[in-house]
Amino acid sequence: QVQLVESGGGLVQAGGSLRLSCAASGRTVNSYDMAWFRQPPGKEREFVAFISWSGVRTLYADSVAGRFTISRDNAKNTVYLQMNSLKPEDTAVYYCAAGRGIATGQLMGALAYNYWGQGTQVTVSS
After folding, report:
1. Torsion angles phi and psi, residue 65, rounded to 5
2. Which residue from 2, 18, 49, 15 is spatially nearest to 121, judged by alpha carbons?
3. Regions in the chain scoring below 70 on pLDDT
4. What is the pLDDT of residue 27?
5. Helix, coil or strand: residue 47
6. Distance, CA of 33 to CA of 102 (rounded, Å)
7. Cβ neighbourhood burial of 69 (10 Å; 0-12, 13-18, 19+)
8. Which of 2, 24, 33, 85 has the fewest CB atoms inside 10 Å of its own CB, making it the most exposed?
9. What is the pLDDT of residue 1?
10. Strand, helix or coil at 17?
């Protein structure tokens, strides 16, 4: 079992920054690929960013590329999402997720991830 706990959400003005953290616990956590998803109000959950277990490979949704950065510190069992130049359309509940052995073509799909956190709210005001 893997337990994930997100933190760092809040209210920020457009153009501002936030850093989300996802603390992981459980066996062999460092061998899991990790991702961030978000669910805007009234919309479906969507992919935001991915990082491989080693940290070597990353992938971003087009809507956040160049503004968001995903990283991980395996010594601390923590994954981060640095969000800069935030826009009102970034308002959502942000979730971290963990999975193993995810095929390249499935990295952006929520079904590929076995473990999820409870989410943290990010609100960007205009």
Report:
1. -55, 135
2. 18
3. 27
4. 67
5. strand
6. 8
7. middle
8. 85
9. 85
10. coil
**What's the per-residue H, E or C state across 56-79?**
CCEEECCCCCCCEEEEEECCCCEE
For 31, phi and psi rounded to 5 degrees?
-95, 5
Whether 65 contacts 54, CB under 8 Å: no
Which pair of tokens denotes residue 6?
């997100």
- How far is Cα 126 from Cα 71, in angstroms, rounded to an integer? 27
Amino acid (one-letter) located at 113: Y
Tokens of 11: 């209210």
Which pair of structure tokens corresponds to residue 120? 């943290």
What stretches of the chain show up as alpha helix (H) in DSSP? Answer: none
- Structure token pair of residue 93: 């509940």
The first and second tokens of residue 42, run together, are 């009234």
Give the burial class of 25: count Cβ atoms within 10 A of its Cβ; 0-12 exposed, 13-18 middle, 19 or more buried: exposed
